[in-house]
Amino acid sequence: MSIEFLVTALIVTVSPGTGVLYTLAAGLSRGWRASVVAALGCTIGIVPHLAATVLGLAALLHTSPVVFDVLKYAGVAYLLYVAWGTLTERGALQVDEAASPPSPVRIAGTAVLVNILNPKLSIFFLAFLPQFVAAADPAPVARMLELGAVFMALTFVVFAGYGLVAAAVRDKVLSRPSVLRWMRRTFAGAFVALGVKLAFTSL
After folding, report:
1. Cβ–Cβ contacts within 10 Å for residue 98, how many?
2. Reported pTM
3. How far is the C-alpha of 52 from the C-alpha of 60, rounded, in Å?
4. Range of 116's domain?
5. pLDDT in tens, the chain (203 residues)
6. Are 175 and 95 within 8 A, CB to CB?
7. Which end of the chain is more exposed for a tag (fewer CB within 10 A), N or C?
8. Is 103 among the domain residues?
């Protein structure tokens, strides 16, 4: 495992994106357990993209504008749905203690969909992983799976770290309704911005 791969993968996972935002929101609204579940869901959401890369389907996605657009706009629609739920207190930043908290399955399911419905991940893996597989490697598929597993492990650790930090300041945020409103609007706006950015993404 090269240091170049580890450094590059770490930079990618640390960079804020939809998964990071959702994990932060889970930590702020429901505490550290929810943030860990969200981090796990985001990590699981990488599996289909990794599998598509290894099986060669990502190459088809890269050369098929129709398939790419279908996944892209499904992802945009879902990000807007998450943004609306966050803004109206029914989604990622639902903090009403009297209301039934979202189940771990629901938290994880939303996190999985956030990553699955992002076709850019397949394109990223298609461009990223082969660079670290030697042309003379006798088992390139196994090597790519190994690299993918390390990337997923880094994703979980980094995302969980973000979520735990958010959970640590949760009480301070919840005790100040004005801050919570600002946070809710900020997160909703960020999800909308990411949706718009995805909508204008092209092959």
Report:
1. 4
2. 0.77
3. 9
4. 16-90+97-199
5. 688 888 888 888 888 788 888 898 888 888 889 999 999 999 999 999 888 888 877 677 667 778 778 878 887 887 888 788 777 765 555 555 545 667 889 889 989 998 888 877 887 887 788 778 877 778 878 888 899 999 999 999 999 999 999 888 887 776 677 777 777 788 788 778 878 887 887 76
6. no
7. N
8. yes
